[in-house]
Amino acid sequence: MPYTKLTKTRSIIVTTCFVVFLASLIGGVGAHVISTMTRSADAMDDERAERAAQSAVMSMKQRMAATVRDNAVWDEGYKAITSDDAQTYTYETWGRTSDNYLLYDAVALTGPDGANTASYWKGQPFDPRNDLGPRFLDQVKKASNPSSKPIINFFSYGGQVMMVGSQAMQPFEPDPEIQTYSVLSFLKIITAETTDVIAEEYLLDGLKLNSQPDPTTLNLPLPDETGKPVAYLSWPSKAPGTLVYKSVYPYILGCIFLLALFVAAVVVAGGAEARRLRKLAAASRFQATHDSLSGLYNRLGLAEKLDRLLGLRGKRQRLTLYMIDLDGFKPVNDAWGHAVGDHLLMQVGDALATCHSDVVAAARIGGDEFALVQVGSTDPAKIGQAILNVFRKPFIVDGRTIEVGATIGSAAEDDVQDPHELLRRADMALYEGKESGRSRWVAYAPHLDRERQRLARLEGELRNAIFNGDIEPFFQPLACARTGEFKGVEALARWRRGDTPVGPDVFIPLAEKSGLIDMLGLQMLRKSVRAAKSWPGLSLSVNVSPIQLCNPGFAGDVLELLAAERFDPKRLTLEITENVLISNPEQAKRAIDALKLNGIRFSLDDFGCGYASIGALRQFGFDRMKIDRSLVLAADRESSGIDVLKATISLAAALGIPVTAEGIETGRQAEVLRDAGCDQLQGYLVGRPMAPADISQAIAKAADAA
Ligand code: C2E
Ligand code: CA
Ligand code: CA
Does residue 319 fall inside a structural domain? Predict the structure, then answer.
C-alpha cells in the first residue's frame, strides 16, 4: 500500500507540475503572439505612412518640376527674357502672381553669369543672392546648362523651409552654340498649410515640419542638394497594433487572471491531494507496521526496525533482541473472554515497553508473543530479569486480578546481519526456554541450533523408520505377584538406528511432536497383536499416547484392526498416562467408553508421578493401575515411601482396582510390593523387555518347569 500511495503522490506532483508548465507555456506563447502581432501591425503601418510621406514629397517635387519646365522651356518666354524688356516681362508673367499663388511664392530670373535679372518674393522685388545665399547660386549655376530636367532642392533660410526648382530658360530647340542660359527659379515655402494638405491627402494625421527629428514620432528628412537634411516632416505613428492591443488589453488581463486562477487552483488542489495521499500513505504505513491492539510494532515493523538498527552497527551500542511468550494467557481468554484478554495484552505491552531504559522498541508479533529490542550495555540477564519482574505482580483488568507468566528467549546481534536470523535465534532460545520449563530467560547459544538440527535429522530418520516398518515391539513379561507365573506382556517400542538403539523416551515424544504418533501407535498395535497370537494364554498390554486417544478416529481404528487381525479384544489392555485425562477429559472418556464396550481394558500408567486423583481412576473406569517406578524406588530409600505405597494401593483396592508394580529389580522390592497389595509385578527381576522369540522361549521353559 505505501508504495502505490507514494507513486500516486508522485504522479499527482508530476501532473500538477505539467499543468503549471503547460499553462505557463500557453501564457508565454500567447504573450509572444500578441506582442509580435502588435509590433508587426505597428511596423507595417509605419512603413505605409513613411511611403505615403515619401510619395507626398515626391509629388510636391514633381509638381514643382512640371511648373518650372512649363515656364522655362518656352520659345516666347525665352525671347522675352533675352530682350530688353526682360524685367517687365518677368514681373508681368510671374512676379505679380507670386504674391498669392498656389504653385510658388517667389520667382528668380538670373542671368547666364548668375547675376540677378529680376526676382520677386510675394510680388516684391528681392535679391536671391543675398536672401538665399551661395547654395542657391550653386544650384543656378548647375541649372544654367540647357537641360530638360529641372533641379529641385530644399532650402532653409530665415527660419523657413522651402523648395526651389531651377531650370535654364531656353527655347524648345536649344541653340547648340549657347552653353549657358539665364535660369528661371521658382520657390515654394513649405508652410503649415502645405503640411495640412499633405496630411489630409496622404492620411498622415498630425504631420508637422520640424527642424530636428522628433524621437517620439516618425520622421522623413527633406534633404538639400548635398543630401543633408534641412528639415524633417514628422508625424506620430498611428500604431494600430498598439491601439488594438490597448482596446483588447482588459480582455487579455482577464485571460491572464483566469489562467493564473486556473494554475493556482491546480497547484492548490494538487498540493492538497498530494498532502492527503502522503498523510494516507503515512497512516497506512503505520497500520502496516504496527499492531492495532497494543500500538506496538508488529512483526513487519519489528523486522524493519531491526534492519535499520543493524545497519547502524558501529554507531550505536550492542543490540539484543528478546522474544517473550506469555504463559497461561489462553486460559485467561477462555475464562474471561476476549475483551479482558485484549486489555491484558495492552497492559502487558505497555509494561514491557517501559520495563528498562535500554529498550528502544517493543513489538507484539503474535497472539500472546511480544518482542523487545535492547540497545545498550546492560547485561541481557538483567533485562531478562526486568522482563520477568513485569509478571511478578498480577495484572488488574476490569477489577479482576489476573496472573500470567512469561518465557523469554534472547539473541545478541554478534555476527548477525539479517534481522530474520536474529529473530530466528531469539525464537530458538524461546523454544528452549519453553521446553525446559517456562517462566525463565534463555539466551541463544549455537548449541541450540545444533540440538535443533540433530532433532530435525532424527525426525527425518524416524519418519523413514516408521514408513519402512523398522520399529518393532519388544515384550516385557507381567507376572503374578504371588506365584511368579507369566500373566501377560507389555509391548515396548524398539528402534535401532543403524547400530545404536534409540530409546522410546526420545522417539515417542518426537513422533508426538511431528504428527507421526498415530501411525506409529497403530503399527505397534498391529505388530504386537500379531506376535501375541502365538501366546494365547497371555494378556497383551500396549501403550497409547495421549495424542492418539484425542484423535476422534482412534477407537474405530483400534476395533477395525482387532477385527482384521481376529484378535480377542478381551486380551488387550491399553495403557495410558494421566495427562490426557487433564488436557482433554471428554474426548478421552468417549474413546475409553467405546473401547471398553468391546471388552478392551484400560490401565492407568505411571501412577504416582503426576496429579491424577484416585477419583479419576473411577471416573474413567480404569481396570488396573500401574505404580510408577519412582514410587518403588522411594519405598526402597525411606520408610515413609512404603507408607505412601501402601496407602495408594489400599485406596485402589477399596475401589476394586488391581495394581501392577513397575520397575521391580530386586527380590526385596518384589516382597514389599506384594505385601503392600500388588497382584502383578513387572521389572527386570521378572524379565527384561525381549524379542517375541525370547518370550516364546520363556513360555516354553515355564511350561517345561511346570
Ligand atoms: P512405560 O510404559 O512406563 O514402560 C516401562 C518402562 O520401564 C520401559 O522403558 C521399560 O523398559 C522400563 N522398565 C521395565 N522394567 C524395568 C526395571 O526393572 N528397571 C528399569 N530401570 N526400567 C524398567 P522403555 O521401554 O524405555 O519405555 C519408556 C516409555 O516409552 C514407556 O514407559 C512408555 O511410556 C513409552 N513407550 C514405549 N513403547 C511405547 C509405545 O509403543 N507407544 C507409546 N505410546 N509409548 C511407548
Ligand atoms: Ca506402560
Ligand atoms: Ca509405566
Answer: yes
Query: Which residues, 6 or more positions from 547, have their beta carbon under 8 angstroms from its beta carbon?
Result: 512, 517, 518
In the listed set 235, 260, 276, which residue is the last one of a domain according to the structure?
Answer: 235
424 and 318 co-located in one domain: yes
Cα separation of 423 and 303, whole Å?
Answer: 8
Quick one: cell of 519? 501411525
Q: Which residue has the cell 520622421?
A: 219
Nearest CA to ligand 1 atom 3: 606
One domain for residues 44 and 99: no
- In this predicted structure, what is the pLDDT of residue 331? 87
Residue at 466 is within a domain: no
- From 476, 489, 492, the mutation candidate for ligand 1 (largest count of ligand atoms within 8 A of CB) is 492
> 254: domain range?
2-53+240-288
Q: Distance (Å, rounded) from C-alpha 558 to C-alpha 565?
A: 11
pLDDT for residue 1: 44
Q: How far apart are CA 606 and CA 229, in angstroms?
A: 138
Are residue 619 and residue 673 in the same domain, yes or no? yes
One domain for residues 275 and 334:
no
Quote the cell numbers at residue 135: 547654395
- Which residues on neighbouring strands pair with residue 572, listed in sequence order? 540
Q: What is the CATH number of the domain that holds 393?
A: 3.30.70.270
Residues 70, 133, single domain; the answer is yes
Strand-pair category, 601-607 with 624-627: parallel
Q: pTM above 0.90?
A: no
* Distance, CA of 23 to chain centre: 30
Collapsing DSSP to helix, strand or coil, 397 comes out as: strand
Alpha-carbon span 606 to 648, nearest angstrom: 13
Residues 675 and 697 in one domain: yes
Same domain for 420 and 281: no
Residues with CB under 6 A from ligand 1: 476, 491-493, 503-505, 508, 521, 524, 543-545, 575, 605-606, 662-665, 682-684, 689
CATH number at residue 629: 3.20.20.450
For the chain, give the percent of residues with pLDDT over 90: 70
pLDDT tens per residue, range 6-54: 677 788 888 888 988 998 899 899 889 999 999 999 999 999 999 999 9
**Residue 181 forms part of a structural domain:** yes
Q: Which ligand is nearest to the CA of 606?
A: 3
Is there a domain that residue 341 lies in? yes
C-alpha of residue 613 to centroid of ligand 2, in Å: 19
| 601, 557: one domain | yes
Number of independent structural domains in the chain: 4
Nearest CA to ligand 1 atom 8: 492
pLDDT at 582 over 50: yes
Residue nearest ligand 1's atom 33 by CA: 543
* CA–CA dist 28, 26 (Å, integer): 5
Which pLDDT score, from 0 to 100, does residue 695 have? 95
Residue 609 confidence (pLDDT) above 80: no
Residue with CA at minimum distance from ligand 1 atom 27: 504
Task: Give residue 608's pLDDT band: very low, low, confident or very high (50, 70, 90).
Answer: confident
E strand segments, 287-437: 319-327, 359-366, 369-375, 395-397, 400-402, 405-412
Domain boundary among 194, 220, 235: 235
**pLDDT at 66 (0 to 100):** 95
Which sign, positive or negative, has the C-alpha torsion 56, 62, 64, 66?
negative
Atom of ligand 1 nearest to the CA of 665: 18
